[in-house]
């Protein structure tokens, strides 16, 4: 019985082992077939993808690129033209970007503080605190340059009616320089040792634009400056003009001549305004003991003149530079005497430093007709093709104007040094610079160092 049980047990064990081996064989066989099928499907998918890619690329190829052997040369030329057009387009885009970058660089360069002109050092006793009204204007800005270079502390007061910040921007931030945006028709309270009162429009188009304002500047403004000089004990120089002589009956004009002025004419707002300012100066000198100086300034020219201020020099130079007709108003026989701005500044400084208190003519005694002056400027501009033509005469235009500077030579030891040719050449160079200005940010401030270093 036991033997039969053992035999049966052995048979069952063998059967189980064989069944297990068969099951393992079936599993292995199934996995192999599955892997083979999956690999086949993977290869098939790759083939399909490859074919799809091939077909897509084939479809995207322009018809121009499908060519036979005989058309190969023509297709290559078309491809070459396409590449060339693309290159040109890219170059244009690059050029536009470069131009934008250049503009940005110019803008940033304009914001970088520039190096100040070299100034002298003055001790506490020698250094003066000097107020210049109209210091951003044509004459005022040149005066400010000299005073700064000499080492003084300078306060510029200007309402920018005709003055420009660009004329004095090279001093912004300097420890000796201060700018006050103010209209002197209103009172001003500052401390100063000397006052140069230059504030007033000076060219006919400017002072005729607002005649009431011109009169106020030369009367109320002068009263305010004289009052300031009285309060702080400052010496004051009043910038008068040759216009106080009007259309003169005496030639040349000495300081003793009382003038021939139309009190109700178009120029009266300036002429009479300056005459009143002289009267005010000497009334304050007599009554309030204010130390006054009066400079009668004749025609002046030079860099920083307004391009369109309507004066003879700027009109003729701008017309000549642009090959426009040089227009002479009237018959052209009226005369003027032109003084370069650096000579004028020398005269103002000499007058302020002197002890002479009566009016003094500051100008160049060399006289030219307007017609001659037009020809001189035309000849100084290279390649000028302008012609000179006459226009209608201007009302109350003085026919002769020439200063008698005998008093200036005697009392101030002053006389002009810059010749008309040299002065006009410097002025023409400046106006060329103005015409070439392309952006506001270009630093093209004019400082005539050759003239300044000679002071």
TrEMBL record:
Its main location: Golgi. CDD domains: UGD_SDR_e. GO terms for cellular component: Golgi cisterna membrane. Residues 131-426 form the NAD(P)-binding domain. The keyword Transmembrane helix applies. One of its GO terms (biological process) is D-xylose metabolic process. InterPro entries: NAD(P)-bd_dom, NAD(P)-bd_dom_sf, UXS-like. It is a single-pass type II membrane protein. GO terms for molecular function: NAD+ binding; UDP-glucuronate decarboxylase activity. The chain crosses the membrane at residues 12-29. It catalyses: UDP-alpha-D-glucuronate + H(+) = UDP-alpha-D-xylose + CO2. Pathway: Nucleotide-sugar biosynthesis; UDP-alpha-D-xylose biosynthesis; UDP-alpha-D-xylose from UDP-alpha-D-glucuronate: step 1/1. It is found in: Golgi apparatus, Golgi stack membrane. Its cofactor is NAD(+). Keywords: Coiled coil, Decarboxylase, Glycoprotein, Golgi apparatus, Lyase, Membrane, NAD, Signal-anchor, Transmembrane, Transmembrane helix. Residues 84-111 form a coiled coil. Its EC number is 4.1.1.35. Belongs to the NAD(P)-dependent epimerase/dehydratase family. UDP-glucuronic acid decarboxylase subfamily. This is UDP-glucuronic acid decarboxylase 1. It comes from Parnassius mnemosyne. The lineage of its organism: Eukaryota, Metazoa, Ecdysozoa, Arthropoda, Hexapoda.
